[in-house]
Amino acid sequence: MARMDLRNIAKRYGPVEVMRNIDLAIEDGEFIVLVGPSGCGKSTLLRMIAGLEPISEGEFLIDGQRMNEVAPRDRDIAMVFQSYALYPHMDVARNMGFSMEIRGADAGEKQSKVAEAARTLGLTALTKRLPKALSGGQRQRVAMGRAIVRDPKAFLFDEPLSNLDAALRVEMRLEIARLHQRLKATMVYVTHDQVEALTLADRIVVLDSGNIQQVGTPLELYERPANRFVAQFIGSPTMNVLDVTPAEGGITLRNGTTIGFSPAVPAAIPAVAQLGIRPEHLDIADPDGASMVGVADVVEHLGSDTNIYVQVEGIGPLMLRQHGHLPLRPNERIGLTIPADRMHLFDAEGIALR
Amino acid sequence: MSRKAPGEIRARRSFYWRYVLEPYFYLAPAILLIAGVMVVPLVIGISYSFQSVRLLRPGGGFVGLENYLDLWSDRKFWIALENTFVWTIGSISFQFLLGLGLALLLNTRFHGKRLIQSLVFLPWAVPTFLSALAWAWLFNPTIGPLPHWLTAMGILGEPQNILGDPELAIWGPIVANIWFGIPFFAITLLAALQSIPAELYEAAEIDGASPWQRFTKITLPFLAPMIAITVMLRTIWIANFADLIFVMTGGGPANSTQILSTYIFTTAFKKLDFGYASAIAVALLILLLIYAAILLVLRRRLVKI
Ligand SMILES: Nc1ncnc2c1ncn2[C@@H]1O[C@H](COP(=O)(O)OP(=O)(O)O)[C@@H](O)[C@H]1O
Ligand SMILES: [Mg+2]
């Protein structure tokens, strides 16, 4: 159980600044997910929390105590590595009990703790095996078991599922969610996969090129993205973005249609602005009188949903997702309308207008 | 139904041909080559040990175990055997420990690492004969500094000739050999160290391991296969390595630095008694085979990666 505070943290490798202005308060027992594209600094931030990477600037505290100079082994934090980092010369039981072996813990206590962790992770039959004789999913479990046995203040995960196949990933995701519910420990989880982020997190931290873009619950990020980056990163399929110009009481699309706001009108819309609309929020309408008209050039039938790629006249390609099966033929002409309450507006820098 | 199915005999014969004989056919060139360059000279060498082959007294012929019986009662042989142990163990243990230390130092990050790394090879670039001479001079109390330094440090009572003292002489070539052998261990162990994934150290660090625990629980197990093989090879090599001793002391004074390989050399090429020299060589060979077997068993027991 631990509360963690990151205060104005920056990270430099030589002259290169890879992270800056990281301000984040992680509550006790919270599940925080750091998400962002590859190379945005997720691992670096996690490694600074673990103590594996020195903090160039700012302050990191656990339960109010400054940790910058504290060695990893004194921080009482467990970490699950992307490559698992299992000790190849130790069997599963010894891998899991390594932290207790190091502490010189009582053999009986160690055995019972390891056995308990092995049981919850379904590893009991494998405790005598070496890591090289395990499958990817089993190794992943051992890595988690090693963290659980520690009973640490906080758990750190660095893309723990990215080496697993899709089915196993879903299974392990559930397992991690259960683990968090059972242990109620503080967890910081790094991933580049927004689905993992949305399903696991209490709060998500979206990072891009070393900056925090937004911090919020999954729903907040989905419904009120702070900027275009977050809007397009969170949600699948990706949000459509269209250039628009301000108009009396609304905005004008590039095809000349004006859409009125109802009820709230943002303070002022700059001359250069963009409209974001999620594929699942576009509505199909009769081509006569719709705000946009286009041709459906590709239709994907997923069963539960239908994805439609539309070439909109005067605007360009848009994507639309409808629930259920839609009996559309390719190259059929359809009309689209944009619900006013589902629009996201961004200024020229991509900052959301509210 | 005792009638054989048609073609069964042919099938069996072709089975033997395909799986039992045919592979040897393909291996034959390699086997012949190995036999030609290794087995034949070895057998001839061993056969000498059962003959009297003295160039000064021609016409010996087969003498059975006579050479070995002589060996059993040869005081010089037992002295040389004991010296071989001192020489080999003294050399290998310091070479290994200092080489490991050097490898650990070279595995850290520091300024001028490249230069140091290539300098470490230097002892190997120098011909053995030259380094033996250089060390002999270093130990010489008239022109070399070592006896004076040792005296100043209080290790020696007076700056005497170490190589001339039967009690101490063997440590002269051993020191030279340690200097000569450190690079081998440093370089091979450094290569092994660099193959250890850095994440394991990080995981161990997070698990609470101290630097010493990381060394004993991660580094050493990873190095074990390399240690086993290099120690074995170097031990055999050192036991057979006569050059340094031959140049520095020539086996003296009073046989105090005579090891089996120098004894073989002097017996064969000074006394020209090849039969007896072969018998000593066979004894050394057997000892080394036993040693290698023990080490291989240990390796299989201890090494898990
Ligand atoms: N040791 C290093 N030296 C220099 N730059 C580094 C180092 N480690 C990481 N970086 C840089 O820091 C940035 C963030 O890396 P990282 O945290 O690994 O990204 P990711 O979000 O994919 O985990 C990247 O641009 C990377 O190139
Ligand atoms: Mg990463």
- Looking at the structure, the CATH topology of the largest domain in chain A is Rossmann fold
DSSP strand content of chain A:
25-35%
Give the total of beta strands of chain A. Answer: 21
Structural class of chain B: mainly alpha
Mean residue pLDDT of chain B: 85
**Which term fits the overall shape of chain B?**
flat
CATH class identity of the largest domain in chain A: Alpha Beta
Topology as H/E string of chain B?
HEEHHHHHHHHHHHH
In helices, the fraction of residues of chain A equals: 10-25%
Side-by-side strand order of the widest sheet of chain A:
6-7-8-3-9-10
Number of helices of chain A: 9
List keywords for this structure.
heterodimer; A: 354 residues; alpha+beta; Rossmann fold; OB fold (Dihydrolipoamide Acetyltransferase, E2P); 2 domains; 6-stranded mixed sheet; 6-stranded antiparallel sheet; 9 helices; 21 strands; 24% helix; elongated; B: 305 residues; mainly alpha; MetI-like fold; two-stranded antiparallel ribbon; 2 strands; 71% helix; flat; binds adenosine-5'-diphosphate; binds magnesium ion
